[in-house]
TrEMBL record, chain A:
<dbReference type="Pfam" id="PF13439">
    <property type="entry name" value="Glyco_transf_4"/>
</dbReference>
<protein>
    <submittedName>
        <fullName>Glycosyltransferase</fullName>
        <ecNumber>2.4.-.-</ecNumber>
    </submittedName>
</protein>
<keyword id="KW-0808">Transferase</keyword>
<feature type="domain" description="Glycosyltransferase subfamily 4-like N-terminal">
    <location>
        <begin position="37"/>
        <end position="150"/>
    </location>
</feature>
<dbReference type="GO" id="GO:0016757">
    <property type="term" value="F:glycosyltransferase activity"/>
</dbReference>
<dbReference type="InterPro" id="IPR050194">
    <property type="entry name" value="Glycosyltransferase_grp1"/>
</dbReference>
<keyword id="KW-0328">Glycosyltransferase</keyword>
<dbReference type="Pfam" id="PF13692">
    <property type="entry name" value="Glyco_trans_1_4"/>
</dbReference>
<dbReference type="InterPro" id="IPR028098">
    <property type="entry name" value="Glyco_trans_4-like_N"/>
</dbReference>
From TrEMBL, chain B:
<keyword id="KW-0808">Transferase</keyword>
<keyword id="KW-0328">Glycosyltransferase</keyword>
<dbReference type="InterPro" id="IPR050834">
    <property type="entry name" value="Glycosyltransf_2"/>
</dbReference>
<feature type="domain" description="Glycosyltransferase 2-like">
    <location>
        <begin position="5"/>
        <end position="165"/>
    </location>
</feature>
<dbReference type="GO" id="GO:0016757">
    <property type="term" value="F:glycosyltransferase activity"/>
</dbReference>
<dbReference type="InterPro" id="IPR001173">
    <property type="entry name" value="Glyco_trans_2-like"/>
</dbReference>
<dbReference type="InterPro" id="IPR029044">
    <property type="entry name" value="Nucleotide-diphossugar_trans"/>
</dbReference>
<protein>
    <submittedName>
        <fullName>Glycosyltransferase</fullName>
        <ecNumber>2.4.-.-</ecNumber>
    </submittedName>
</protein>
<dbReference type="Pfam" id="PF00535">
    <property type="entry name" value="Glycos_transf_2"/>
</dbReference>
Length: 339, 328
């Protein structure tokens, strides 16, 4: 048995968000270590991509037209190295809301994805979109739902009694839709409810203005340990306008916290079948749903607390790494060459 | 399963329904069904629809108590079996090649979810008025839909079912079927739906050349509902703003200016100079962009509103008569 393959992960977003945490998990998870030696390299958002020496290279980069020449050069210099791309950002709803010229955007994605041997979608909804829009061919597409170390969340006791604290956790950016949540919450009459908002971001001032003088709404900034935040809330609300996956939903399930969320993109997967879904971002609909939720006597909490997801994640990566790095003759590479 | 469904919402449409249905039965694209939704009509609409059911097996009728245009369309969508769904109000007409043209367009462009065309305007007697809606056809984004509504009218688009599924929802009060069009709207229900498609899905909206719909305009009773129409437009904006706040921050004033200009033009058509002047003034106070983007149309509206309020409708009627005579 030869040494484990070296899997190099490239990332251009080192801010404390979902991608960074997933990469930290990839490097620290013992199950992942069985599949390969993982290392992470942070590179600049612009300019040339470096020459890398690895058995398999995984891009967690953000794709755009400006990056394209560098990406093509990178493919050329790593012609025989398996290149994988994990799509952390783009979804149907992202495109709907943010992209002015959709056809040009689809062309960019199609061109960029074609440079990779495999494209990894982070949710079923995203994979469906990538296939339906013919951005990635189905044989080079995989779905691997991201995961972080959830042990700390599973260790939390499920909330007891009537729910009091609604938690909103994430970047204070219009993506997360906390503006809708604040409006909906302010319309609730219950004086003993609280809305706790954890995170920082560009919309902080606007959201604080929206919260006004409602003493029930509190802003906490960014917390070091997500488990500590999760422990303090009874319900997690995610009215996201778009969401490739939505790790917070997974963490909430692991912590046994009921979820109320928009059915945007990957959230319908990460929030699971027991979440309360509110379609549309109308404050009235959200108010009604929140009220209904806090009035439920026993919040339905997930019994299994998504116990299998770390092992499924590792198994999927193991399979992908094996497929691309094991000697030719029994692998998918040969099938692709033959086709 | 038919490939296409044409939904025909019909409310007290006894006068026009037969002509509408015959225009649909004459479509060159044959693999389709026609779903007539009799929206609680009190005239002979039901009997006329039944008459056509016996003549053409592709026609079906759905009956319901009156729910309004949006409610009738939603029932039609719920009953539709086609992969693509077109709408033709029971007083409008489709030219024979319309469905075939849109289906060819959708088949050739998998990213396009909504295909529309221009419309020729007809009067109560189905005579061509010589006016047409000739909208922008390509590179249409949500801002275009919001400002200029290139789709134009409710009988213009042919839409993939997947698009309608993507924006459908079930309000808590609804027990029967999903809503695609918002039934709380009695006006602006078209634009509200198109804008939701543009803002909340990544489907492309695109037009095909030609005037494939004949869209009937009534000369009576236009001015009375100008303010109601503005109110429902504002309600649409208030409803959709949370979905894309930055989009509205950027385009709302201009879109409102266009809406006010449109209402001013309608007031001019019905000879209400005061309303016209009021709306055109408010339009350009709201935003100057229509003057830059469409100077000719903006200035003629402005001039006509001023002329009408100062001199009454005699000069405009005279000009209309001259134009009509010249065309004839």
């Amino acid at each position: 048995m030869s040494a484990l393959p070296h899997v190099l992960h490239l990332v251009d977003d080192a801010t404390p968000g979902g991608v960074t945490r997933v990469l930290a998990h990839i490097q620290s998870c013992p199950l992942m270590a069985k599949a390969g030696r993982h290392s992470v390299r942070v590179i600049s958002r612009t300019g040339q991509l470096p020459k890398c020496d690895a058995d398999m290279i995984v891009s967690h980069l953000s794709l755009n037209w400006r990056r394209m020449p560098a990406l093509i050069g990178f493919r050329a210099r790593h012609a025989t190295t398996p290149l994988i791309h994990v799509e952390h950002s783009y979804t149907a709803m992202f495109t709907a809301i943010n992209v002015r010229s959709k056809l040009r955007f689809f062309t960019m994605l199609r061109t960029a994805y074609a440079l990779f041997d495999t494209v990894v979608a982070v949710s079923d909804a995203q994979a469906k979109w990538l296939t339906e829009r013919r951005l990635v061919s189905s044989q080079s597409l995989r779905v691997i739902a991201p995961v972080v170390d959830l042990a700390g969340f599973r260790a939390l006791p499920a909330p007891q009694g009537t729910p009091k604290v609604i938690g909103a956790i994430g970047r204070l950016h219009r993506q997360k839709g906390f503006d809708v949540l604040i409006k909906a919450f302010r319309a609730l009459p219950n004086p003993d409810l609280a809305l706790h908002i954890h995170g920082t971001g560009p919309d902080e001032d606007a959201l604080k203005a929206l919260a006004g003088d409602d003493p029930r709404i509190r802003f906490f900034g960014h917390a070091q340990r997500s488990e500590d935040v999760m422990e303090t809330v009874d319900i997690v609300a995610m009215p996201s306008r778009w969401e490739a996956f939505g790790l917070v939903a997974l963490e909430a399930r692991a912590a046994g916290r009921p979820l109320i969320c928009a059915p945007s993109d990957g959230l319908s997967m990460s929030a699971g079948p027991n979440a309360r879904y509110v379609k549309g971002l109308g404050a009235t609909a959200w108010s009604a749903a929140l009220l209904d939720m806090v009035q439920q006597v026993s919040p339905l909490s997930e019994t299994d607390r998504v116990s299998a997801c770390e092992s499924e994640f590792a198994a999927s990566w193991q399979d992908l790494i094996d497929r691309h790095t094991s000697p030719a003759g029994e692998t998918g590479t040969v099938l692709v060459q033959a086709a | 399963m038919p490939f296409a469904t044409i939904v025909v919402p019909a409310y007290n449409a006894a006068v026009t329904l037969s002509e509408t249905l015959e225009s649909l039965m004459a479509q060159t694209f044959r693999d389709m069904e026609i779903v007539v939704v009799d929206d609680g009509s009190t005239d002979k609409t039901a009997q006329i629809a039944q008459f056509y059911v016996r003549r053409d097996p592709r026609i079906r009728v759905v009956n319901q108590i009156n729910r309004g245009l949006a409610g009738a369309r939603n029932s039609g969508i719920a009953a539709a079996r086609g992969e693509v769904i077109g709408f033709c109000d029971a007083d409008d007409l489709w030219r024979p090649e319309k469905l075939a043209t849109h289906i060819a367009h959708l088949k050739a462009s998998p990213e396009v979810g909504l295909s529309y065309s221009g419309s020729a305007l007809i009067d109560e007697d189905s005579r061509l008025l010589g006016h047409a809606q000739r909208p922008r056809l390509h590179r249409v984004n949500a801002a275009h839909v919001f400002k200029r509504n290139p789709i134009g009218n409710g009988s213009a688009p042919v839409i993939r079912r997947a698009v309608l599924d993507a924006i459908a929802w079930r309000p808590a009060t609804e027990t029967l079927r999903d809503w695609v069009f918002d039934e709380t709207f009695r006006q602006s229900e078209d634009i509200e739906c198109w804008l939701r498609i543009a803002l909340l899905t990544d489907w492309i909206i695109e037009g095909v050349p030609g005037l494939l719909t004949e869209y009937r305009v009534n000369s009576t009773g236009l001015s009375a509902n100008v303010s109601a129409q503005l109110a429902s437009w504002e309600r649409m904006v208030a409803k959709l703003r949370p979905a894309a706040p930055s989009f509205f921050a950027r385009h709302e004033a201009t879109a409102r200016a266009y809406q006010l200009r449109y209402l001013a033009r309608r007031a001019i058509s019905s000879g209400d100079g005061e309303t016209a002047l009021d709306h055109v003034t408010r339009a350009f106070t709201e935003s100057r962009r229509p003057l830059i983007e469409e100077p000719l149309r903006s200035l003629t509206t402005w001039a006509a509103a001023h002329a009408l309020s100062r001199f009454g409708d005699a000069p405009i009627n005279f000009a209309r008569t001259v134009l009509r005579t010249a065309r004839a």
